[in-house]
Design brief:
Length: about 180
């Protein structure tokens, strides 16, 4: 079932239709938020806020075919609201974690403390380099890697051509490679 069909069903009060839309778009919205605010922990909260705002305002969507672009706009507004609120001055403990499962973080192996510190440093270095990219490159890179989407999906979400997505991803990877190599020197 297409997004447009699900939007039409959601407008009639079928919450499960919006739940399907939320499931389809959650990772993309999270990536978009992460690209904008540069903090994964906050991006998760903003993605949830975006999906809630979308649910409450689904009746205002004039063209159900444009659900993705509409939801992306809500995400960007949620990020701007957060950035303006000055809440981004605090770093939570969860923001410092690498995201590994606490029970079996390395497939049952027990790495040394030195290995853990090295991996955490690599993740921090990578995320800092991604965060330092210009926004257009950071956005496309995070959206592409958060969820396995086609260039065409990204193009329609961001309102550019697939060729532009290709160029931005190529440039983002090159910049990232360059920055990471400079960090090792």
């Amino acid at each position: 079932m297409s997004d447009a069909e699900l939007v039409r069903l959601a407008r009639t009060g079928r919450a499960e239709a919006y739940a399907e839309l939320a499931q389809r778009w959650a990772a993309r919205v999270t990536a978009l938020c992460h690209a904008r605010v540069r903090r994964a922990d906050v991006a998760d909260d903003l993605a949830q806020e975006t999906l809630l705002r979308g649910f409450r305002a689904i009746h205002t969507l004039s063209d159900p075919e444009r659900f993705g672009a509409w939801l992306s706009g809500i995400a960007l507004r949620a990020c701007l609201d957060w950035l303006k609120s000055k809440q981004n001055g605090q770093v939570t403990f969860s923001a410092m974690q690498t995201g590994a499962d606490a029970d079996e973080p390395f497939g049952g192996e027990h790495p040394s403390t030195f290995d853990l510190v090295g991996q955490a440093d690599e993740v921090r270095r990578l995320m800092a380099a991604v965060g330092d990219l210009p926004e257009q490159y950071r956005t496309v890179l995070l959206l592409y890697y958060y969820e396995d989407v086609t260039y065409q999906d990204l193009a329609s979400m961001l309102g550019v051509s697939a060729a532009t997505i290709n160029a931005r991803l190529t440039r983002a990877r090159a910049l990232l490679r360059e920055r990471l190599m400079n960090c090792r020197r």
